[in-house]
Amino acid sequence: MTVKPWKLITTQVDQSYRIFSIRTNRAQSPRNKQEYEFYVLESVDWVNIIPVTPQNEVVLIRQFRHGIQDITLEIPGGILDDHDTPEEAAARELREETGYQESAMILLGRVHPNPAIHNNYCYTYLAKDVTLVGGQDLDDKEDIEVLLKPMDEIPGLIRDGKITHSLVLTAFYHYYMNYRPAG
Prior knowledge:
By secondary structure, the chain is of the alpha+beta class. It has three helices and twelve strands, in the order βββββββαβββββαα. The protein has helices at residues 86-98, 154-159, 166-178; strands at 7-16, 20-28, 35-43, 46-51, 57-65, 70-74, 77-79, 100-101, 104-111, 122-128, 131-132, 144-150. A hairpin with a 3-residue loop joins strand 1 (7-16) and strand 2 (20-28). The longest helix is centred in the middle third of the chain and has 13 residues, at 86-98. The model has no long low-confidence stretch (mean pLDDT 96).
């Protein structure tokens, strides 16, 4: 059987929040011609940043995540603000969340976070030769701890279940598959 696009019958934004909207789509199956409702989280695009110091340490963050009610080990990231390019958002989020600034920002890739229910992209950047240039500039709803880990410890942190955020795992996949530093 060949998969075909579904016919969109209606679409309606049900509720809008600061960082996403909930949309209901009514669509018709090309296979059985039945109509079904689907819920989509409309969101602006996101960025993740792998910041690496000249000493080949990764700037990681720890923060409480309300969805799982626990603290996670991650890389900096966030949403694009109005009129941001993904690269501008990556530089801004890196600076705000960690106080570090890059000498170069390299796009490693982009993914659909969850195309079953989200309509956006998440871009992953490598921030090269980051240096601490100031303090954090956190939003009122952010509590972020910054820590450094040698790059060669990252696979072990993933393997041992210390890094579990799927978009962070994807970011490191992009790093290891698409960027091979000399040495």
